[in-house]
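Sample 3 of the quickstart, ligand zinc ion:
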Amino acid sequence: MTFTVAVISDNTTKLQYSDDGLQLISLDVNDISASQNLNRDISAFIIDTKNAALAHSWVIAIRGDAEYFSHLLYLHHFSHILTDVNVPKSSADLLQQLNDWSQRKAQLRLSDSSQLNHQVIQYLWLNKSRCITVKKSLKKEKGFYYPLLDLWSDVDTAGKLAWLGKQCNAGFLQKVKLINRTRSCKQCDSAMLNFIDTCPSCKSIDILTEQALHCFTCGHIAKEQTFQRDNRISCPNCLTQLRHIGTDYDRPIENIRCNSCNNLSINSEARAQCFSCEEDNDIDRLFINNFYQYQLAINGLTLAQSGSLDAPLPVDLRESVSKEHMAWLLNWLIHTPTADETQFHRLIKIRIVNYQQLLQEKSELLAEQLLSDFRQRLAILIGDQNTFCDMASDVWLYAFPFTSELALDEFKQQLLNIAEDAVDNALEISVVEYDLVEKKEEGEMLSWINRIIEQQ
Ligand SMILES: [Zn+2]
Ligand SMILES: [Zn+2]
Ligand SMILES: [Zn+2]
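Result:
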């Protein structure tokens, strides 16, 4: 297989890629109009220029193009939030990345990019190292923005944050980490705020911290300087000489003096004045914006591979999936290592050990009732991330993607509690954990699942 790679450069640089599997075509970096009329066979773009403004224009043109928005795009000499990070070091490396990309493209069933979430899912699916992340900008009202989403949608940042929240709730995206948090004006949503101390009484900004003394004899409080007379301290009001702190006088904790209303207070009051609309905000009433980095979640992956969620795959993650889907999911997890060392993927088999015995000792109806009660309580325990599969009336498999030792221990403990709660008709439950690391072929995964169901 030969991949067509567009190398966008000026004549000053020379690229070292060359291989039988690569067909390189050159584009002049100065001719941005060429981005309007690109060769349809292109699989990847490499921008090689030291002119940052030109490089940026090309990146925007490619990522903003309906045909090429999800293609591999590398940038030499600079880093750019919209390009693929792992710039290939050699021809072999480039070929490897192209192969990975085209394999993932072959698995992709989602082709419509008119909906923002479909476009985002395709983009993220085609290269696992991609994510949706934020950038700082003084030109944006909230101080941060999502460059990719801004390129693909006109909605304002508040609308995008709400959209991202919805994508997470629907299981398409998941938060990877919190990048930053801003507070913005309750009137106009701008994050360009001036935090300033004011007088709590009259809101004047003309305040200062003064060192004051408090005379115990007459109760007079005033600036320290007014007490100083010929190297001694005496009260300007009652003229008593003050010798010992704690006995004759002390320093009051109220030492914020307002030059407008002469009020003395313990604390000043912080206000947030908006640079954009001049609203004077109470700092406790500002909007809080959390900016996260996002990745695909299980429903997004399912949608990428199935093309739609009303296909044979479950929309509601609380419904059992088919054995084939479970095999596909496990395979996918095995090929998706977790970034965090304390996280891993596990498959858990839950079996009712005394199922046959229950059927013999109780009526079938009663046994079913017991199991369904158990399953209902189990469903509450299980999160939306845990796809499960009913293998038989008494055996279920649960996938635990991106989980931790702590979360699993907690789950197992709660499971035992549920089983023990059924006092009169105790269910005997066995829980077996399987580590998902060993790579298997697609068909092999299905037979492995069949094998582990039969194991006691
Ligand atoms: Zn005042
Ligand atoms: Zn006094
Ligand atoms: Zn404002």
